[in-house]
């Protein structure tokens, strides 16, 4: 049950001073809280024996008030320190998870769906935080505070009465242990179901246009209702066990009260304890209710926290498929990019997506990459970005194996515009500044001109300060592509990769963007993948991929002379353009 604390020992060791202070302050506050009942019992005995004077009464009241103020001050300190530590753990773990997500490769996100990762980053972290705060509180109160109360009852009043009143405790320990095991299993299932529901909601929101277009609203609602019902059922199973804690505790506490009052009254009649002692004993029994409840709460919290921590640790223990070399090579510039007999297959697949790729690219060259859908164009670029392990052959930059260069250096060189542009829910200015954080408006307008976006920006309601909405929902496909292009242009990278990133713009706009590229990137390397041959005709070298292999290569003129796939596609597209123009 307490293994969750062992799993969190790295945190407690780091903040041992905070937690030591909080626990000591909590114990002191608890000890101070044990004094007022003795004052009450003492006052009752003085009244019974008619020895209470005004001076003594004033002293008792003054002492009670002083203890109240001191108890309040110390309670504030332990509360602030203890629960502040829990907030730090939540923040720290969330930061670790976010840092972990940013290091992960596509393989990781293929195994863990977004909704489940969100559940682990929210609900599970809350449960872990609760363990480090309220869990520590219930641990101290259900052990040290309980022992302090029992000690005061036994030492200052009667051990016989105390032991009799505590007879229900062993029963409680057995019952709570069984409840705890059930909580752990059911809470894990409930959290897994919550992650699945999160993922379903995300997919429905992202695909709402498709859902409406295919009139699938009712089917989607039915599917969602089924998932919420599953989450509800699993949480109800957790709630059923939760609901058993309080009645069980009340029965046990009621038994303790019954024994305490019955046997205590007998001891008063036998003059073995005073009436004030009996009153004090019953006040202590009332104070014992919380520590007894705390036992149940402790088991509940620890089992929930343990289940959540296991889920989070499984995520954090996932090692990145691609990592930095132990001693990265010092490469300052990307003078050349060389593919030497490169072959690659995605994890869990047998067939090669790329096979026997040989290509030598010099700085300042523009390379066109064309081919049928699924021929391997995007895969080629992903290998350059080192998104996947298991590359056969060598990819070299300036003569150095790509795997010997740090990931940060590689990605600092490359500006990548993928097929599916990701717009953040920010302004257009902020989206472009992802490429260069300190970019001025003058620089932004310049790259927007290169991306042929200046006319569009004047038509938007707030210009650069226009919010693009969730995933750029307020922008058209062509506008999103051009904002993404501007974001890459402002980085002015050594290597620019455009992966079919102008498919949503018209031919004239594409031609202007290409012309701007030719002027701006004379001494920089550029890779352009496209389905429209017009996007690569200016390239210094063009490769045609077919089933992961280079089927044709050369300049535009050379490929036209080969009279292969490239020439066929180019002529067909030219005819289509002429038909559209006429």
UniProtKB/TrEMBL annotation:
Keyword hit for Ribosomal protein: no
Claim: Cytoplasm is one of the keywords in the record: no
GO molecular function, one term: ATP binding
Domain annotation ABC transmembrane type-1: ranges: 21-304
SMART domains: AAA
InterPro entries membership: AAA+_ATPase, ABC1_TM_dom, ABC1_TM_sf, ABC_transporter-like_ATP-bd, ABC_transporter-like_CS, P-loop_NTPase, Type_1_exporter
Domain ABC transporter: 337-572
Subcellular location: Cell membrane
UniProt KW keywords: ATP-binding, Membrane, Nucleotide-binding, Transmembrane, Transmembrane helix
Topological type in the membrane: Multi-pass membrane protein
SUPFAM superfamilies from the UniProt entry: ABC transporter transmembrane region, P-loop containing nucleoside triphosphate hydrolases
Transmembrane segments: 21-44, 56-89, 127-151, 157-176, 251-269, 281-302
Major localisation: membrane
Name of this protein: ABC transporter ATP-binding protein
Provenance organism: Virgibacillus kekensis
């Amino acid at each position: 049950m307490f293994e969750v604390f062992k799993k969190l020992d790295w945190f407690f060791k780091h903040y041992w001073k905070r937690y030591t202070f909080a626990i000591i302050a909590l114990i002191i506050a608890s000890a101070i809280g044990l004094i007022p009942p003795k004052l009450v019992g003492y006052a009752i005995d003085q009244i019974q024996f008619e020895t209470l004077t005004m001076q003594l009464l004033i002293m008792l009241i003054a002492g009670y008030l002083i203890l109240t103020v001191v108890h309040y001050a110390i309670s504030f300190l332990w509360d602030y320190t203890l629960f502040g530590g829990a907030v730090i753990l939540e923040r720290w773990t969330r930061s670790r998870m976010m840092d972990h997500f940013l290091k992960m490769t596509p393989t990781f996100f293929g195994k863990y769906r977004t909704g489940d990762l969100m559940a682990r980053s929210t609900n599970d972290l809350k449960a872990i935080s609760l363990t480090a705060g309220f869990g520590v509180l219930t641990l101290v109160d259900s052990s040290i505070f309980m022992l302090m109360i029992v000690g005061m009852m036994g030492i200052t009043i009667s051990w016989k009465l105390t032991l009799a009143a505590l007879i229900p405790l062993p029963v409680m320990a057995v019952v709570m242990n069984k409840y705890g095991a059930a909580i752990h299993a059911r809470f894990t299932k409930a959290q897994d179901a919550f992650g699945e529901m999160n993922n379903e909601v995300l997919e429905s929101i992202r695909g709402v246009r498709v859902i409406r277009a295919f009139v699938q609203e009712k089917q989607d609602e039915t599917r969602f209702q089924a998932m919420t019902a599953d989450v509800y059922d699993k949480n109800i199973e957790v709630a059923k066990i939760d609901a058993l804690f309080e009645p069980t505790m009340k029965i046990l506490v009621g038994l303790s009260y019954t024994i305490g009052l019955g046997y205590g009254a007998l001891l008063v009649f036998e003059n073995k304890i005073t009436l004030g002692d009996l009153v004090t004993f019953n006040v202590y029994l009332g104070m014992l209710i919380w520590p007894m409840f705390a036992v149940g709460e402790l088991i509940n919290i620890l089992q929930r926290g343990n289940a959540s921590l296991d889920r989070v640790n499984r995520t954090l223990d996932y090692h990145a498929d691609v990592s930095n070399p132990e001693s990265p090579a010092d490469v300052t510039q990307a003078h050349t990019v060389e593919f030497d007999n490169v072959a690659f297959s995605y994890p869990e697949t047998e067939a090669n997506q790329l096979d026997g790729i040989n290509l030598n690219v010099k700085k300042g060259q523009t390379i066109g990459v064309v081919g049928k859908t699924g021929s391997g164009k995007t895969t080629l670029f992903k290998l350059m970005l080192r998104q996947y392990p298991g590359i056969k052959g060598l990819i070299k930059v300036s003569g150095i194996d790509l795997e010997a260069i740090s990931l940060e250096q590689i990605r600092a060189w490359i500006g990548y515009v993928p097929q599916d542009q990701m717009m953040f829910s920010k302004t257009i200015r902020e989206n472009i500044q992802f490429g260069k954080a300190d970019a001025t408006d003058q620089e932004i307008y310049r790259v927007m001109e290169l991306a042929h976006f200046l006319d569009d920006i004047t038509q938007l309601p707030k210009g650069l300060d226009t919010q693009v909405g969730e995933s750029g929902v307020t922008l058209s496909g062509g506008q999103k592509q051009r904002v993404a292009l501007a974001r890459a242009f402002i980085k002015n990278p050594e290597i620019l990769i455009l992966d079919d990133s102008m498919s949503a713009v018209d031919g004239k706009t594409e031609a202007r963007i290409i012309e701007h590229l030719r002027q701006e990137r004379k001494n920089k390397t550029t890779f352009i993948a496209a389905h429209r041959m017009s996007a690569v005709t200016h390239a210094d070298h063009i490769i045609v991929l077919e089933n992961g292999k280079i089927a044709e290569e050369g300049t535009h003129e050379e490929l036209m002379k080969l009279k292969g796939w490239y020439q066929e596609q180019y002529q067909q597209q030219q005819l289509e353009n002429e038909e559209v123009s006429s």
